[in-house]
Amino acid sequence: MNKLIVIEGIEGAGKSTVKRIIKNFLKSFGIKKIFCVREPGGTPIAEKLRKIIKNGEKDEKLTYISEILLIYAARSQLLKNVIKKKLKIGYWIISDRFNISSLAYQKGYSKTNDRIIDLLQKKILSNIKVGLTIYLDVLPKTALKRIKMRGKMDLIEKKSFVFFNKIRKKYLSLIKNKKNVIIINANLNIKKVMLSLIYQLKNWLIKNEYK
To answer: What span, in angstroms and rounded, lies between the C-alpha atoms of 189 and 42?
Structure first.
């Protein structure tokens, strides 16, 4: 059984909260070997790259190509040094974002250098498959309200409504008719989100004959 679970959605969708819910549910299901990661990040080098991607540098703007390369460099570190090793010894991995984020954000907002993304994912993502993608669908208006309530925002969180609306549409087109995808209405309160998530996650586990 493929034990890599990925949580996707725009900023403000509630990915961190859902990650904790999934972890607790898997434990209640008798699963003990669970490891959580985030993208970009998850290793010492990847976390340093995350800071540059999320916050940039004061006197230098990150170019579009550089951003793509840094994202996939961080993903390469995480895959080789954590995810593949953990999966090999029977761990369940819960990842806050994965490759579909790059397709939604980098391809969704700009068609520039799509070929670079295609080449990078072909090289870096060989021999790795996602078992389940959980997409948290939230309206940009709701997401932006949540982001502002957090206080300090990074470069991505400061983007406009138009930006997030475009990314959401790209996400929805990417997951349309895709197998092993759970879509959660993340506009609802956390209790309703949790109930919907647990119901669908349980059905997925049973369907895949996990015992």
So the answer is: 29
In the chain, the DSSP E strands lie at 4-8, 34-38, 92-96, 132-137, 181-185
User: Tens of pLDDT along 126-170?
Assistant: 889 999 999 999 999 999 999 999 888 898 898 889 999 999 999
Please name the fold of domain 4-207.
Rossmann fold (3.40.50)
Determine the length of the chain.
Answer: 211
DSSP 57: B
Segment 168-186, tens digit of pLDDT: 999 999 999 888 999 999 9
Query: Angle 144-175-40 (CA atoms, 0-180°, nearest 5)?
Result: 60
Strands (E), 27-124: 34-38, 92-96
Total-model pTM = 0.94
Which is nearest to 96 in space by CA: 183, 7, 35?
7
